[in-house]
Design goal:
151 residues; single chain; 4-stranded parallel β-sheet; 7 helices; alpha/beta; Transcription Regulator spoIIAA; 4 strands; binds iron/sulfur cluster
Length: 151
């Protein structure tokens, strides 16, 4: 679900999220792109596959599906800001083309001290400098270390 759907769902509004499945007349397509490599965070108990996720043909394969309009792209499996190849992916013209026909990007991120503010700023500045990315919704799941937050 994109951000507006969540808001409507929580307010028991009229979005498709609140309509019985048997009454749906269309489907939303969400594409999960597990192409992020590496993670600079060190969350205890992490079981996410961090290596050998990216393949150069992955974005070509999605584009070749020729799906008119997708709801969201889910970008993972590692952390959006902690991944080693996040800028390479965002700058890839194929990713930009893909993002022209989606509503938004969903991704996870953790709040930790291992990624410098400068790197996070570089990623955000790049997103903000690109017309395609500025038009997207961002549905972000943020993992917070409760122990660190409360102490
Ligand atoms: S941010 Fe995600 S991928 Fe990275 S260490 Fe934490 S749980 Fe693992």
């Amino acid at each position: 679900m994109i951000t507006s759907d969540w808001s409507d769902y929580l307010n028991i509004g009229t979005s498709s999220a609140n309509i019985d499945i048997s009454k749906h007349r269309s489907f939303k397509i969400q594409c999960i792109l597990d192409i992020l490599e590496g993670c600079k965070y060190h969350c205890p108990g992490c079981f996410v596959k961090k290596k050998h996720n990216y393949h150069d043909s992955a974005l070509d394969n999605v584009l070749s599906l020729n799906i008119d309009h997708m709801d969201d792209l889910v970008l993972g499996p590692t952390d959006f800001f902690g991944a080693d190849n996040i800028l390479q992916i965002l700058e890839d013209p194929r990713m930009i083309e893909l993002c022209r026909s989606v509503e938004g990007i969903q991704h996870n991120t953790s709040i930790d001290g291992d990624v410098t503010d400068d790197f996070v700023k570089d990623v955000i500045s790049y997103l903000e400098s690109n017309e395609v990315y500025t038009n997207l919704n961002y549905d972000v799941q943020i993992a917070v270390d409760v122990y660190k937050t409360l102490t």
